[in-house]
Amino acid sequence: VSTQSTGFFKQTNEQVQQGRMNNSLRVCVIGAGIVGLTSAINSLEKGHSVEIFTETISPNTTTDWSGARIKPTEFTEPAERVRVWTNVSLKKYLELLEKENGTSITPAWSKEYYTTPQPDPSWKDAVQSFRRFTPTELAETPGVVDGWTFKSAVVYPTILLNWLLKRFLDLGGRIQLTKVNSFQEISRDKFDIIVNCSGLGARALVGDSKVFPIKGQLVICWAPWIKDCYYYVKEGCEGEPAYIIPRGDGSVVVGGTRDYHNWDRTIDFDKAKIIFNRNAALWPHLIASAPILGHSIGLRPYRDEIRLELEENERSLPIIHNYGHGGSGVTLAWGCAEEVSQILDSFQNNKKKEDNDNDNDNFFVKQPRFTDHSRTLR
Predict the structure, then answer these.
(1) CB 34 within 8 A of CB 333
(2) For residue 219, what are the β-bridge partners?
(3) What is the CB neighbour count within 10 angstroms for residue 352?
(4) Is the confidence at residue 367, as pLDDT, over 60?
């Protein structure tokens, strides 16, 4: 199934079309979650032609079920590149918040609580208005001895994905609803390069055993009075964090779990009660009386180190791998998309050089041979 739409972001689209006339690449993006859509949009805006191959679109992607708090992370490698990706993404979300409507991006204070003393996070200077809690503020949450607050933002994932999908289509992008079982299925006649944003699917598609799921379960509640994000970690219980994240529409997600290597998408209602009661015990004034709207299950596509690199081999088209973001896909997506664009630029420049070298070689090889008739004229 292919679909296309036009007429939105007119100025940007004109710039995109102009860029496509300048030896653009034909790019196939695999995956339509937040990582795939941002990579596809960035590539379109750089002037390339892009088609997404995906088995699912919103509201059935991994991104749709996520809590989607936009904040830096300490737990993702490679650390130096993650910091760059985070900074790029934060700036992009602020830009979208200021300039665009319908993205669901909503400013929110993040409040993080810990049961043991904590050093300053490495990302402290990357966020706005970071400060530690006062003793009085810490005393408001049971068992807490340290913590901080800072300005951040939240998104309603499904609304954001639909906004991104519309932008992608209006820039001239195309989508084919299909499952890619092998990179060899992607035609060399139609495309120059693949951008692999298959998330958890990379385990089978690439054969990467380092990719595995971390199951997360959420309780969705109606609590329009909650405007800030709350996050609590108990020493020794990192697999059972407590958190509340508003979605901007009056609903909140209450979490959560981190079940490593768990592929089961079944909702555990006993665990849902534990999740809700854990949060209600910490913040009874916020959540204890909130009605429950539903439940959500998702599998975070985790890898010990995010894979973002170019792979070239004889078996398929060149591939830019962009997967393994775990629970940080929303936070890191735009930064990773920018690095994908940089890799595309480098690949395109090398391709131009090779084409020029081949043209020069062909000029000398293909020129007609001239017969020397000087002797016959004498």
Answers:
(1) yes
(2) 254, 295
(3) 11
(4) no
Long-range CB contacts (within 8 A, 24+) of 90-93 = 90/126, 90/127, 92/334, 92/335, 93/153, 93/334
Angle (CA) 76 77 79, round 5°:
100
How far is residue 128 from each of residues 54, 70, 151, 246, measured CA to CA in Å? 36, 13, 5, 19
For tokens 């596809």, what's the residue? Answer: 40
Is there a contact between 329 and 66 (Cβ–Cβ < 8 Å)?
yes
User: Do residues 321 and 305 touch, judged by C-beta distance below 8 A?
Assistant: no
Task: For residue 370, name the pLDDT band (cuts at 50, 70, 90).
Answer: very low
Please tell me the predicted confidence (pLDDT) of residue 4: 38
Interior/surface letters 151-189, b for 16+ CB within 10 angstroms, e for the rest: ebbbbbbbbbbbbbbebbbbbbbbbeeeebeebeebeee
Spatial distance between the Cα atoms of 40 and 31, rounded to a whole number of angstroms: 10
pLDDT of residue 69: 92
Enumerate the β-bridge partners of residue 194: 28, 319
104, two tokens: 């669901």
- Which residue type sits at 146? D
d(CA 336, CA 341): 9
Whole-angstrom Cα distance, residue 378 to residue 374?
A: 7
Is residue 221 scored above 50 in pLDDT? Answer: yes
d(CA 352, CA 367): 22
Output phi, psi for 34, to 5 deg: -60, -35
User: What share of the chain has pLDDT > 90, as a percent?
Assistant: 77
Alpha-carbon Rg for the chain in angstroms: 25
pLDDT digits (tens, 9 = 90+) for 37-52: 999 999 999 999 999 9
Place of tokens 């809700």: 276
Tell me the C-alpha distance between 79 and 155, whole Å.
24
Question: Which tops the pLDDT comparison, 315 or 166?
Answer: 166
Tell me 170's DSSP state.
Answer: H
Please tell me the predicted confidence (pLDDT) of residue 164: 98
As a whole number of angstroms, the distance between CA 245 and CA 25 comes to 40
